[in-house]
Amino acid sequence: EAALLPGGGRMLTTAALAFTPAPQQCQSACRCSSTPPMMMVPGLRWPVPGELGEIVGAAARLPTPAVAVAGSARAAVAAVAVTPAATTAAAASTVTMATTDTLVEEADRLHAAKEVDALFDLLAGADASDDELAWRIARAHHDKAEDLVGDDARKEQLLREGLSIAEDAKERGAGGNGYVLKWYAILLGRLGDFLPTKEKVANSYKIKDSLEASAALLPEDASVQTALGQWCFKVAGISFIERNAAKLLFGKPPQSSYAEALGFLEASYKLRPNKKAALFAGLCQDKLKDRAASHTWFERCLELEGSGEADAELDRQAKAALK
């Protein structure tokens, strides 16, 4: 079955095609809800991670017929247009399709495995107007930027692109999505390294508001607690120039303390032991003049397994602090 396109072309749709990761039929882990189980269509294969982002991006540029897929978890986000002139070539090529759910699951798997480059490539061209994809795309930009060494221009570009995606999602009304708020705040905070004092101080209020809203929606999310701890740590150590600028611009500067920062970081580590929380908890204890406690936290940071340049940088800071 194929839907007709303007000009006489045909589009293969999920009404005609279905695929599963198994060679025969859906297994118990399959997310589809079709009955009876969907069978593998000859000539189709399950897309590999590097192809999914391209599939979704290509689909966004194609005219999409109004095809309802009864019982599907989500409407299909990819289809392949076949024009009469290209029918023979298309028949010889492999047709791949992916649902948003599949893309989301693969993105989360790669993020958990800290496969930064594969994750970034996967989501290249994905539909950023889908809020569940938007914050994951923003997260991928953040992770890619964190993993860069010696290329500040590229890092700033990635942070700005990721922030733009998260901000668009937030303005679309996804302010009730804790993950959108979290990555908006984290990216805005990281971008501060590239901003003038006035803009950085102005953003600090937005960062705190978004993180607090995210924490209320995601009370078990360790990274939100870490981000709040980092915000407090930076504000507690704000420079005289920044403090005066905030006072002139906003009446009073943002306020926090190293003790408040430590509370968030300890909460983060309790939810999920992680290098960043351990490192900043050690830095807080150092500021609070508890050298023994700071050493304990730095050692915890080094004991946790890491991967990638971002974790390597945390280890370098912990080792330097122990000297």
UniProtKB/TrEMBL annotation:
InterPro entries linked: RMD1-3_a_helical_rpt (IPR049039), TPR-like_helical_dom_sf (IPR011990)
Q: Where in the cell is it found?
A: Cytoplasm, Cytoskeleton
Spell out the GO cellular component terms annotated for this protein, sorted alphabetically and separated by semicolons.
cytoplasm; mitotic spindle pole; spindle microtubule
Kindly list the GO molecular function terms attached to this UniProt entry.
Answer: microtubule binding
Please, which domain of life does this record's source organism belong to? Eukaryota
- Any Pfam family hit: RMD1-3
UniProt keyword list: Cytoplasm, Cytoskeleton, Repeat, TPR repeat
What PANTHER family is this protein classified in?
Answer: REGULATOR OF MICROTUBULE DYNAMICS PROTEIN, REGULATOR OF MICROTUBULE DYNAMICS PROTEIN 1
Q: How does it assemble?
A: Interacts with microtubules.
Name it.
Regulator of microtubule dynamics protein 1
